[in-house]
Amino acid sequence: MEFSEYYVAYFDVLGYKDAFKKSKDISAKLIDAIEFSIKIMKEIVSIHNTTILGESTEKIPEIEYKVFSDNVLICYKETKDDLSALSLVSFLRLVATIQRVFFERPLLIVRGGITKGPLYLTNDFVGGKALIDAVELESTAVYPRIVVADCILNELDSFKMQNGLFKSLVDASCQDLLVKDAGDKTFLNYIMSYDAWIPFPKNGSQIEPVGSFEELEQNIREGRQRKPIYKPECRNEVFVILKKHKDFVEEKVIEFSQSSNDETEEAKRLKILKKYLWLVSFHNKICEHVLYKMPELKINLKSEFNEQTLAFDVSVG
Fold it and tell me: Which of 34, 66, 162, 304 lies at a C-alpha separation of 20 to 30 Å from 201?
């Protein structure tokens, strides 16, 4: 056996352990939701592998995945060629889309990490430093997000330095994809449209299909520099998912808003509430994004001191 360099994304579903402590009905509903999300994920990966990759592009690796319980691993093997930048950007957007799939219908939130490193992968086994590093990223992410390792960010920067074409591609694709919080951690924005950008429009002043993968490949190899276009109709798609996100987060904040005199229960409540308050901050940041500008969907919080519990209760208003 031998290890190969892989780009690896790993995440798990928050609340999985607690669901099994509550009741069989709740845990069964959670498993159904995860199974539904995985089914959609498999379809998305299949479409990605058949539309981005073709018989004439064997150098670009297919996306692979492994699922165990609520743990999901998505990866692809590194190839060093002219399409490496496109492959990495497509992978990051794919993972963000899968994160959105887990949220969009079954309302599951996940936490994880994306990194790069040695991995050994077969049909029956997966292991290596890349997986260990990705799991460690997940454990330090704290909040519901998929954190991007510095090695990935450095690689994106190195692609941008190679030529103007790659810089244009990476800058555009990452503009609505990567978010940085106050703690300087960079993570994926799952409230975005996977195919929002047309990297190589046929006409720079019009929105037209990219065309075949062979045409896209030729554009890259010939170094044609055209500024990517953001599809305006994708803003409507973002509005729909952002509205659903607002309703979900507000409902969860209300669910865990009331303080308690029981110290054990209060500590547990605050730990959960903190994650949803972080989601409020993330949500409002996306509402203010230069590509979206949807202040009407921002979440407004209020706090009130509870004299019985000597703590602050949170409300939405």
Answer: 162
